[in-house]
Amino acid sequence: MHTGQAEIQLVEGMLFQTFGQVPLALDVRLLPGGSINMAVRAGSSLGTFFIKWNDADRLDMFLTEAQGLEVLRQTGTFSIPEVLGQGTFSGKAYLVLEYIEPARHRPEYWPAFGEALAQLHQHTQASFGLSFDNYLGALPQRNALLNDGIEFFIENRLKPQAGLALYNNLISKVLYDRFEKLYQVLPDLLPPETPALLHGDLWSGNVIVDTAGRAALVDPAPYYGLREAEMAFTKLFGGFDGAFYQRYFEVLPVEPGFKERIPLYNLYPLLVHVNLFGKSYVSAVERVVNRF
């Protein structure tokens, strides 16, 4: 879908600010799927770029996304778009990235994707968390370093989201108190793990098949966390092809009972959806909490 003149002028200014040249033959097309930011494919004499923007007070969201992309790029495990520019222009915060041209799956795509994710998860550090905080969607994601992964999951993932939902009257005090009881038993329900580098928001909308047939990852919310949480997250909205999971678990097996633990890990993204999109997700949260 083509954009209006206002968007074209905005993109022109962002590209000029990034490259110091006026882009010629500008072709700007809106991209679908963004619920938080405006996103476009911008073809021009300077190249073809992916650009997204929001209000200027969201600049930190784009700065931390750029940092997160670089964290993933340094591992060499996936195709990751290069960050070309970020800043503010005409009252908007923006991020300019290399545009990854979508292509079709090849027969080996899914097992190669699973193996690459297993390789990413083998990148580790001494503590759970990250040297900077970032965002999941539009919500701040706290990455304060902790030595215990389950404590990290409770203190930096579940508690902030449950507290925000209670503050905004999206969940009841009864449900909030059930979370408090759940925290006490989670160490007995989840296996201990070594910190693993995670994409942090891994679902089909954040994966592109590039022209080389590889999985390219976008929109990360990375940190060193529990890798089972990432694998559970991939199943929240339908999951990937079976060959992806088969190859991943061949390379990095998990403890028995993972299938039963998936709902516990997915309490975090479900609470994020409650806080972003409202009470329609509360019943899914209640079903999980009431089981434990």
From TrEMBL:
Top-rank lineage group of the source organism: Bacteria
Signal peptide positions (record): none
Keywords: Kinase, Transferase
SUPFAM superfamilies (UniProt xref): Protein kinase-like (PK-like)
MF terms in GO: kinase activity
UniProt similarity note: Belongs to the fructosamine kinase family.
Protein name: Fructosamine-3-kinase
Organism: Rhabdobacter roseus
Lineage: Bacteria, Pseudomonadati, Bacteroidota, Cytophagia, Cytophagales
